[in-house]
Amino acid sequence: IDFAQHHGWDYVLVDEGWQSSWMPDLVEYARARGVKIIAWFNSSALQTAEQRDNWLPLVKSWGVAGVKID
Fold it and tell me: What is the fold of 2-69?
């Protein structure tokens, strides 16, 4: 995030390994530096409408700017 801020990048992709317990804090840290977060998700966790309906509003509540699902 600090590297992205230094170089004027708008977004950082947080790939595999992130935890929901610290993601909101990371998003806030990035936001304070003018950087937005895109979060990676494993598509196997979002295959049903119910899974998506539960996960995506939660991620939005963290302030994540976008998701990469693959």
Answer: TIM Barrel (3.20.20)
Cβ-based burial of 64 (10 A; exposed 0-12, middle 13-18, buried ≥19): buried
DSSP conformational letter for 47: -
Per-residue pLDDT of the chain (70 residues; tens, 9 = 90+): 999 999 999 999 999 889 999 999 999 999 999 999 999 998 888 899 999 999 999 999 999 999 999 9
Three-state SS for 39?
Answer: strand
| pTM of the predicted model as reported, rounded to 2 decimal places | 0.88
Element containing residue 51 per DSSP (H, E): helix 49-62
35 vs 13: CA distance, rounded Å: 10
